[in-house]
Amino acid sequence: MATAAAQKAAETEPGGAGSTAARAAEQQAAFDEAVAADERIEPRDWMPDAYRTSLIRQIAQHAHSEIIGMQPEANWITRAPSLRRKAILMAKAQDEAGHGLYLYSAAETLGVSRDELLDKLHSGRQKYSSIFNYPTLTWADVGAIGWLVDGAAITNQVPLCRCSYGPYARAMIRVCKEESFHQRQGYESLLALSRGTQAQHEMAQDAVNRWWWPSLMMFGPPDEESSHSEQSMTWKIKRHSNDELRQRFVDICVPQAESLGLTLPDPDLKWNEARGHHDFGPIDWTEFWDVLKGNGPCNDQRITQRRRAHEEGAWVREAAAAYATKQAGAPRADTAATAHGEATA
Ligand code: FAQ
């Protein structure tokens, strides 16, 4: 942030209560001005406490979703139908872990620690995306996740590349590039199944039937029930409402489903000439809120597995910390290499 107001806020002399209030007003004004001018807010800039809290909430939920999201697909790594599919799926799951790391790092710039965030995930005080509480029953689910879940993630996240908070926006640029590859591999995998044997085609259709509605729920509750949207859009954390992005996703998917030779499980889905969009049927919001309360088909399994992975990974964190401490006190790599009799040139 580098506006004149920001400069002025930074230069205000400390003083009595009057000057403290004036300074607070100037800081707020500088922040508002930067957001209005589409500038990025950076970690060291002043920001309202509520902005910081809401960002931590959203980025943490996003990070948790990335790492919990590895589980449904990991279920199929050992059973992928070919070496090529297995290599692709392993790379994708690793990408999701990487996205989690960028996002936890972005959240850390707001003054929270990764331990604190993971503790909140493990104790159920922070959420992760509803979508990852559904099971992956067949191989076709891996394709459906790539096409629909990654497709929904991209639709939601491309606007986040313009989020007002710099570290989150920058993390999103890389994440979206990778998600875009994920979406294409899902589409390609489903296409192969759809054009395969009758049984393969039916398996692809069944997966799309099960993942369609939960994918629409990923965008969050309808606008009138979205508690954070209005404020987040004023702060330019979110650029579009939940319903706007959901509609965009439906419009993108309809022609893609046609080229896949698959149908979407919604009898009310039809083009509305007047609106210039597809109308679609009602979403079962009772199911959505139920999943958020922990009652989805896989909530217990996902969180139990996550806690177990964290506990079993304790030795890795300890070893990495011990190594970092050792390196911090160690001579530079080039001198260390000489000490071991290796060439330094
Ligand atoms: N699931 O007021 P709003 C991925 C909660 S990444 C669970 O509308 P907001 C990659 C919401 O937190 C997928 N909870 O909230 C991948 C709030 O509760 P709170 C994750 C949900 O923040 C692919 C309450 O409902 N993506 O898929 C959900 O303005 C394949 C009221 O909602 C992101 O996180 C939900 N679906 O809008 C990985 C993107 N929706 O916090 C592996 C970033 C809402 O007050 C494999 N996040 N809630 O307790 C966002 O864009 C927003 O946070 C929304 C929700 C749009 C998700």
From TrEMBL:
Residues 1-29, 326-345 are annotated as: Disordered. InterPro entries: Aromatic_CoA_ox/epox (IPR052703), Ferritin-like (IPR012347), Ferritin-like_SF (IPR009078), PaaA (IPR011881), PaaA_PaaC (IPR007814). Residues 1-13, 326-339 have a biased composition (Low complexity). Pfam families: PaaA_PaaC. PANTHER family: 1,2-PHENYLACETYL-COA EPOXIDASE, SUBUNIT A (PTHR30458:SF2), PHENYLACETIC ACID DEGRADATION PROTEIN PAA (PTHR30458). NCBIfam families: PA_CoA_Oxy1. This is 1,2-phenylacetyl-CoA epoxidase subunit A. It comes from Streptomyces alfalfae.
